[in-house]
Amino acid sequence: MGEFAADRHVKYILSVEKRKDDFESVVMEHLRLNGAYWGLTTLDLLGKLDAVDADEVISWIMQCQHESGGFGGNIGHDPHILYTLSAVQVLALFDKLNVLDVNKVASYISSLQNEDGSFSGDMWGEVDTRYLISCFSPVKNKLLKNLSYDRFSYIAICCISILQRLDSINVERAVNYIVSCKNVDGGFGCTPGGESHAGQIFCCVGALAITGSLHHVDKDLLGWWLCERQVKSGGLNGRPEKLPDVCYSWWVLSSLTMIDRVDWIDGQKLVKFILECQDTENGGISDRPDDAVDIYHTYFGVAGLSLLEFPGVKAIDPAYALPVDVVNRIFFGR
Amino acid sequence: MADRVHLEEESCGLLLELEHILDSDPLIDEVGFIHPTQLAALIGVVDCDSSGDLDTLKFFNRDHKLGISTQILFPLYKQAKIIFFDEIERYKKQTGISGIWGDETSLQRCKSTLDELEIGVMKHSKVLLLLSADLATAWNSRRAIVLKKDTLSMYMDELRLSELILSYSAKSDQAWSHRRWVIKRIVGKLPNLQEVIGKESKLVERIAERSKMNYRAWNHRCWLVSYMTGEQVVYELKNSRVWAGLHVADSSCFHYRRRLMMRMLEDFCAKNASVSVGSSSEIYDIWKEELEWNKLLIKRYIGREALWLYRRFLSLHWLRDFMTQLDSVIFLDDELHLLHSCSIIPDSDFDDFQAQAMYSTTYILWLARQLSRSHAIVLRQKLQVGDMKDLLNSVCPQRSFFCDMLEE
Ligand SMILES: [Zn+2]
């Protein structure tokens, strides 16, 4: 097991931003705001947020905003609730939420809530599919990995809570909808009857935690399902029979933290697994040992280490997915 | 500077060439990004004079298969993107309002340019999506135009495009989501909805064959269940059994069965509000058969987590919704018997049998925790908590706390 290569990871993150001249990076342009959130949160967790020019980032983010109040993943791209959360989270990191017209963003989000309490992701209105990004390798002509799992109810609730406008949505209905996605195995799917998945579970538990509704969760039963995600190597998978993947260090671990069952997995073995996924030479963390690194898994690896209280990494809030000091600044004014 | 202009002209030519191919062969059903040397080999079959410069090879199109040289992806994408975003900007201006498109009065204005713009947006978004399947803005632009025209043939074209993209990008959430959007739009327009749903279900099976444990594909199939008739649900259950038996590690395909089984149970309960499920009903037989089939697979494929998790579900509902107290005693005896036969670990094949022992132990403990009080008492009397602790300690000591939950 190698050491934790924090400085290399910082260098790697700063270098990703500059890569713009190949196919693989341009096809990811539409989710640049997500990438910014992953990269910048990692920098903050490592205490290196000052390595980037905040003004430059903020002025770019504000150019991604639309009339409706929502943000696109990059300049010129259609708005979506997912990128709106990323924008708000990044502004929160820089303590710059004050540049936002909060009412406008809040009304964009509340306009996406449906009768049954669920949220659509944008005006095209598919209710509550999780948002997954697939990293496509044109050379090998096959899919390499899924990049992100998110859920619109969580995104909406997290975003609106950071803006301190929870009263602008119907929280009760939103909670009821989430509870209707619960399965007999204690987990949650993306819609009622959907298969339990660690990414979905994080979103549901996170939303319930933010709204103070965790009493709807059978903690022992859910904890049971979640701790069964740990495989022999120490890594966690997101569903039964899948290979372990660093990103689930976050999805599973944050959920276990919120329901107070984190000691149900072997933290030592998980730390070891994450450290084995580092590129100790050039920085960055991959999904599994010896795979290619990317910014997404770098973020979730570091966030996982943070939940495991690894030395040298700032504490992260398991529900808001932001450093604890940032969350405290938002709600308690430091 | 002159170089740049030249480059741009060239990639614009690439875009036109590709769009021409797509126009002239609307039945393309496969796309691949191919290295120029492979492309040369492919073309070599039809074209003897292929020893020339590899850089001149760009596309391959035969038998409705389209190959694109990996060499040209970057310039092609860049050009398509510039033109698409430029056009979509103009289109939004033309239609007056960005955000809510299709304002009548402004539509009347420049009808011809508008038509041209729409054709352009459809063409360029198609190329972009072939190269970058999750570009939501491109899908959105297609939805806006298709919605405005609102013709069945255009909706069907969208299903075809998304199928083409899924043929090589099977995890594209946007492509799956686009299908659901289209199906919701055409539900009322179709005389043969059941046929479309049935075909859609088959499509998922084909894609799941190539793309293992694909959550989005199976999620799509689960979504279809609410559009199925009762007969279709039974048909799907029976028809997808062979596939499931051959893919016992694919937990999602068992979740699909869970969804179908639950739909049957819900339908039954809705029809027979006050009656509990009797042993003479069709669903009783199906559930029993499913349990037996699952046991068969468990014994054939040692140590498969997905099979054991499926059994948790089947047994829990079986006890809860189908069994009298007396029946349940017999059933639980059988399950304990299964546990004992599965917790013997021979020296050979150590790993799989170790896993089998662990899954069978946690299966019983899970049931004991989840059962209603009266059933749980029966089971807990049969299980010696001390014995279970020993067993759990030997097969997965890190989860010995599962036993503590039973003692409460
Ligand atoms: Zn991952």
TrEMBL record, chain A:
Role noted for this protein: Required for male fertility and root tip growth. Catalyzes the transfer of a geranylgeranyl moiety from geranylgeranyl diphosphate to both cysteines of proteins with the C-terminal sequence -XXCC, -XCXC and -CCXX.
Protein's UniProt name: Geranylgeranyl transferase type-2 subunit beta
KW rRNA processing (keyword) present: no
CDD domains: GGTase-II
Top-rank taxon, per record: Eukaryota
Annotated family: Belongs to the protein prenyltransferase subunit beta family.
One annotated GO molecular function: Rab geranylgeranyltransferase activity
Pfam families found in the cross-reference section: Prenyltrans (PF00432)
Cofactor note: Binds 1 zinc ion per subunit.
Record SUPFAM superfamilies: Terpenoid cyclases/Protein prenyltransferases
EC number assigned by the record: 2.5.1.60
Subunit structure: Heterotrimer composed of the alpha subunit RGTA, the beta subunit RGTB and REP; within this trimer, RGTA and RGTB form the catalytic component, while REP mediates peptide substrate binding.
Keyword annotations of the record: Metal-binding, Prenyltransferase, Repeat, Transferase, Zinc
InterPro entries xrefs: PGGT1B-like, Prenyltrans, Ptb1, Terpenoid_cyclase/PrenylTrfase
Domain Prenyltransferase alpha-alpha toroid: residue ranges: 5-321
GO CC annotation, single: Rab-protein geranylgeranyltransferase complex
Gene3D superfamilies for the chain: 1.50.10.20
Catalytic activity field: geranylgeranyl diphosphate + L-cysteinyl-[protein] = S-geranylgeranyl-L-cysteinyl-[protein] + diphosphate
Keyword Cell inner membrane belongs to the record: no
Cofactor(s) recorded in Swiss-Prot or TrEMBL: Zn(2+)
A Gene Ontology biological process term: root development
From TrEMBL, chain B:
Keywords carried by this UniProt record: Prenyltransferase, Repeat, Transferase
Domain of life: Eukaryota
Coiled coil: none
InterPro entries given in the database record: Prenyl_trans_a
One of the Pfam families matching this protein, by short name: PPTA
Cellular compartments per GO CC: CAAX-protein geranylgeranyltransferase complex; protein farnesyltransferase complex
GO molecular function, one term: CAAX-protein geranylgeranyltransferase activity
Protein family membership: Belongs to the protein prenyltransferase subunit alpha family.
Protein name: Protein prenyltransferase alpha subunit repeat-containing protein 1
Species, as recorded: Trapa natans
